[in-house]
Amino acid sequence: MEEFASLDDAALVERLRAGDEAAFMWLVDRLGSSMLRVARMYVASMAVAEEVVQEAWLGVLEGIGRFEGRSSLRTWIFRILVNIAKTRGQREGRSVPFATLAGDDLDRPIWDPSAFRGPGGSPAGSWSSLPDDWSDVPEEQLLASETRLAIAHAIDALPPMQAEVIRLRDVLGWSSEEVRNALDLTETNQRVLLHRARAKVRRALDSRFEGSDR
Amino acid sequence: MSEPDDITCREVAELLSDYLDGSMTASDRERLEAHLSLCDGCTAALAQLRETIRLTGTLTEDQIPEPQRDALRDVFRAWKQSAGGEPA
Fold first, then answer.
1. Calpha distance A99→A30 (Å, rounded)
2. Which of A29, A97, A209, B17 has the smallest count of CB within 10 Å of its CB?
3. Residue B84: pLDDT over 70
4. What is residue A110's predicted lDDT score, i.e. its pLDDT?
5. Of chain A residues 177-196, which have a CB less than 8 A from chain B?
6. B59 vs A: CB within 8 A
7. A51 in contact with B, Cβ within 8 Å
8. What is the model's pLDDT at position B79?
9. Model-wide pTM > 0.80
10. Is the model more confident about A214 or about A28?
């Protein structure tokens, strides 16, 4: 399966057009989990989300002859998915406010205000206690499975759109433009969602390392 | 060159993710870097955020459950049969 990782979009598209099942399943394995979660944001149940994902893949296969490479393949696949998921959600009479997906805390500061000196402090707005230096946390602890679990839990606890943005950006390594297009977000929203998600993961890590024996 | 203290740590802390993403204007970036060069607290906060991103990158995604994988393989086979796919 590793052979597909080295293919660019044009080559992958060629394989799909040629009916290469292994190439298709490789893509399914790469994108399937994210697609299910994204579909689930817009529809009422996981069962419907599964149907939406199947419909999206069929749409991909039927449209693959027309793919022109103006976006990345994965972005294009997600656009098809999101369109179908939104339409399906609307048909179910389900309208999900953006704030429900994105979180209602987008305009609040991400650092605890008590970390900074107030207007009377000197200088105002400077750190009242410095952030911990993590460079003395041993690498084994940084990379321990418990650390990964703490990150995974922190991400799972995020509002769904924040969670998906950080997964696509920082777990899967997509570019900001790909994520913005894939999830139909404005440039600002992509940035703010990522910023908040990273801040919450950072906080989870900070409390984990704080109590650590180092 | 901007004055190092024309931006507060509280403000810098909110900009660090954009800074690491390269999504700041050149002048904002310069202001931020001038502040960082003099501020241990913001430098530590930046290092924490960098490390957060690195560690998040060590996560892996689960595969979808096998029945769904099978269902998608069926979607592919049905498409291939009906559309033929182009000959390889």
1. 28
2. A97
3. no
4. 85
5. 191, 194-195
6. yes
7. no
8. 96
9. yes
10. A28
Q: How many CB atoms lie within 10 A of CB B20?
A: 17
All residues of chain B having their beta carbon less than 8 Å from the beta carbon of residue A142 are 51, 55
Please indicate if any CB of chain A lies within 8 Å of the CB of B11. yes
Q: Residue A18 has which token pair?
A: 């040629």
Average pLDDT over residues A151-155: 97
Residues of B within 8 A of A20 (CB-CB) are: 88
Domains present along chain A, CATH in parentheses? 2-91 (1.10.1740.10), 98-210 (1.10.10.10)
Interface pTM, i.e. ipTM: 0.90
Cβ <8 Å between B86 and A17: yes
Cβ A62–B41 below 8 Å, yes or no? no
Residue A1 has pLDDT above 80, yes or no: no
Cα distance between residue B37 and residue A24, in whole Å: 49
Distance from C-alpha of A20 to C-alpha of B66, rounded to nearest angstrom: 20
Q: Could you give all domains of chain B from N- to C-terminal order, each with its CATH number?
A: 9-82 (1.10.10.1320)
What are the start-end ranges of the H helices in chain A? 2-5, 9-17, 21-42, 46-63, 73-91, 98-102, 139-142, 145-156, 160-166, 176-183, 187-210
* Chain A from 20 to 39: CB within 8 A of any B CB: 20-21, 24-25, 28-29, 32-34, 36
Each residue's pLDDT tens digit, A174-189:
999 999 999 999 999 9
**Which tens digits make up the pLDDT trace of A62-71?**
999 999 999 9
> Chain A residue with minimal CA distance to B53?
A170
- A57, pLDDT greater than 60: yes
Q: Could A62 and B71 be called an inter-chain contact, meaning their C-beta atoms sit closer than 8 Å?
A: no
